[in-house]
């Protein structure tokens, strides 16, 4: 028996047989075949592109059905990369000008293009180069008529082991028979890891050298929480993990009993458990999880899934459906958060060296006033059907709040003039996700009705660590004492001003942080529907007074490692 360790990316225990997938080299023809022509090679290039696009659109729909709109939107970026005109023109020039076969022209074009953008300083663009290589491989295989990896029809109790699992691979996994996956590279914030958590599929990533250690068909045990993998386990260990599996299954069934219970501590402090959504299609899962509201409606996916700016009527109908389904429970609608890693094909955003620190979110909305007013009017009109709240993203200046609110007042007057009904007391809040807002949160609290802490961006901005960059991903850690102090500062500022504060980043659903955040005084936890019941159970089994003492101990720690050790 041998034990390997990686990063536990998605909780759960699996016992199964390995499907080892090591991709072979693609053989690229160096000369145009005697039976082909330049026109024929151009046709191959276009056919491969069309086939790849069709496949990605189908995968997108499958992901939307399984995991919701926010996860499906990953593939919009992939499709846009396939349609890059500069790349297509460069490859076509190699075929017509250099008389290269389509496959060789595409391979060279992809390599040159990826090399060019990977040399840029911006880590976001380096990550796009990796995405383009993955998508380009699909295009190349389709061009050469090579079968694409198919994980949709697996043997029972299969554990997929591969170097990396792309989002499209993860989306196609045969969930009836796949019981988990293990990858040699990757981290907790990789798209495949996020998808695995949504699917509640155990996953261990970043297991160095695993491809050389496992054999196809051998029995392995994997623990998606601890990151442990056991090769050729003893019968005794298999029995131990079968008991652990059954315990997890029973715990999940027990959690379902809490669906209609409130999140109240043993000494009577009540908090809210809310859900995050990307579209009206995601609301049912939130309701089924027993969540008492929606803490984050990511409206940008409504924009990303359209070939035009959604009209006021289109937006109004989407927001109205969510408000009606939630039957008076709070629905926090975040205004469009485009930019960074989210683009619109019909909005000509400038190419930036560092888009995460550039033209995005509220900055775009304030510069595109008509577009912003269209969204605000739609939200206001929908507010008559439930308890809707408006939230501005990426706020770094009080001036931005005041400008946005002035535009909101204009929208209210316009609706008054045409006799439209809306909630005249609609609440307005902000995402706290920049250091400038967190440090002087007490000033921002005077301007708004509520705060929502976005830990995904707050962590990367506070630590100057791009969460998507593997070279520094080990430094990205919301348990860093600086991040924790910032969170406490924001909560204290909100309460001092008499406003509520929620958290809608991934950290809100991390069960290791639940008692700490409870002790900090967080009012509402907003997360993926699949995490809500676990967090609720921890809160119901906690004592608020004890959690406050626990918080004081944690905030005295010096390093993320010290914090995590104390949390154990």
Protein architecture, described:
With about 575 residues, the chain is of the alpha/beta class. It folds into three domains: about 130 residues, Phosphohistidine domain (Glucose Oxidase, domain 1), CATH 3.50.30; about 110 residues, PtsI, HPr-binding domain (Enzyme I, Chain A, domain 2), CATH 1.10.274.10; about 300 residues, Alpha-Beta Barrel (TIM Barrel). The protein has 24 helices and 17 strands. An eight-stranded mixed sheet has the order 1-8-7-3-4-5-6-2. Strands 10-11-12-13-14-15-16-17 form an eight-stranded parallel barrel, surrounded by five helices. Strand 13, helix 16 and strand 14 form a beta-alpha-beta unit. It is globular. The model has no long low-confidence stretch (mean pLDDT about 90). This is Phosphoenolpyruvate-protein phosphotransferase. Keywords: Coiled coil, Cytoplasm, Kinase, Magnesium, Metal-binding, Phosphotransferase system, Sugar transport, Transferase, Transport.
Spell out the blueprint of helices and strands.
Elements: E1 2-5, E2 7-10, E3 13-21, H1 38-67, H2 69-72, H3 74-82, H4 85-96, H5 102-118, H6 123-143, E4 158-162, H7 167-171, E5 178-183, H8 191-199, E6 203-205, H9 210-213, E7 219-223, E8 228-231, H10 235-256, E9 263-264, E10 270-277, H11 283-288, E11 294-298, H12 300-304, H13 312-325, E12 330-334, H14 362-367, H15 369-382, E13 387-392, H16 398-417, E14 427-432, H17 435-439, H18 441-444, E15 450-453, H19 455-463, H20 481-496, E16 500-503, H21 514-520, E17 524-527, H22 532-540, H23 544-554, H24 560-567
Parallel strand pairs: 3-4, 4-5, 5-6, 10-11, 10-17, 11-12, 12-13, 13-14, 14-15, 15-16, 16-17
Antiparallel strand pairs: 1-8, 2-6, 3-7, 7-8, 9-10
Helix pairs in contact: 1-3, 1-6, 4-5, 5-6, 13-15, 15-16, 21-23
């Amino acid at each position: 028996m041998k034990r390997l360790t990686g990063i536990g990316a998605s909780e759960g225990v699996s016992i199964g047989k390995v499907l080892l997938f090591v991709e072979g080299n693609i053989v690229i023809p160096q000369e145009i075949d005697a039976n082909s022509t330049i026109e024929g090679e151009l046709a191959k290039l276009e056919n491969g592109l069309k086939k790849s696009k069709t496949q990605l659109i189908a995968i997108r729909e499958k992901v939307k059905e399984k995991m919701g709109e926010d996860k499906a939107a990953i593939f919009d970026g992939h499709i846009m990369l396939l349609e890059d005109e500069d790349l297509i023109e460069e490859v076509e020039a190699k075929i017509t000008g250099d008389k290269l076969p389509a496959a060789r022209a595409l391979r060279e074009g992809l390599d040159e293009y990826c090399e060019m953008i990977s040399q840029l300083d911006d880590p976001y663009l380096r990550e796009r180069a990796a995405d383009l290589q993955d998508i380009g491989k699909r295009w190349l295989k389709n061009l050469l008529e090579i079968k694409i990896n198919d994980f949709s029809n697996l043997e029972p109790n299969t554990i997929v082991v591969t170097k990396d699992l792309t989002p499209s691979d993860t989306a196609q996994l045969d969930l009836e028979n796949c019981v988990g996956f293990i990858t040699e590279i990757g981290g907790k914030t990789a798209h495949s890891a996020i998808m695995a958590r949504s699917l509640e599929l155990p996953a261990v990533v970043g297991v160095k050298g695993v491809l050389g250690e496992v054999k196809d068909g051998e029995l392995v045990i994997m623990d998606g929480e601890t990151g442990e993998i056991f090769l050729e386990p003893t019968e005794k260990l298999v029995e131990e993990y079968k008991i652990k599996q059954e315990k997890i299954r029973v715990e999940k069934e027990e959690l379902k009993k809490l669906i209609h219970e409130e999140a109240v501590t043993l000494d009577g402090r009540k908090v809210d458990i809310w859900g995050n959504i990307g579209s009206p299609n995601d609301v049912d899962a939130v309701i089924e999880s027993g969540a008492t509201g929606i803490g984050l409606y990511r409206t940008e996916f409504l924009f990303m899934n359209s070939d035009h700016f959604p009209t006021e009527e289109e937006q109004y109908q989407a927001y109205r459906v969510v408000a009606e389904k939630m039957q008076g429970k709070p629905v926090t609608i975040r205004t469009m958060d485009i930019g960074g890693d989210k683009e619109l094909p019909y909005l000509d955003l400038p190419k930036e060296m560092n888009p995460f620190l550039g033209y995005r979110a509220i900055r775009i909305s304030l510069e595109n006033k008509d577009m912003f007013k269209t969204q605000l009017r739609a939200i206001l009109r929908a507010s008559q059907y439930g308890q809707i709240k408006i939230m501005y993203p990426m706020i770094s200046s009080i001036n931005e709040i005041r400008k946005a609110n002035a535009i909101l007042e204009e929208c209210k007057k316009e609706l008054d003039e045409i006799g439209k009904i809306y909630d005249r007391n609609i609440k307005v809040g902000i995402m706290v996700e920049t250091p400038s807002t967190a440090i002087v949160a007490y000033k921002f609290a005077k301007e708004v009705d509520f705060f929502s802490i976005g830990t995904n961006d707050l962590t990367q901005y506070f630590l100057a660590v791009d969460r998507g960059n593997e070279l520094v991903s080990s430094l990205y850690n919301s348990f860093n004492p600086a991040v924790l102090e910032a969170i406490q500062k924001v909560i204290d500022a909100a309460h001092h001003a008499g406003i509520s504060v929620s958290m809608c980043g991934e950290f809100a659903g991390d069960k290791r942080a639940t008692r700490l955040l409870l002790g900090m005084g967080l009012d509402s936890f907003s997360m993926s529907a699949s995490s809500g019941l676990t967090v609720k159970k921890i809160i119901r089994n906690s004592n608020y007074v004890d959690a406050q003492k626990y918080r004081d101990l944690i905030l005295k720690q010096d390093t993320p490692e010290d914090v995590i050790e104390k949390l154990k």
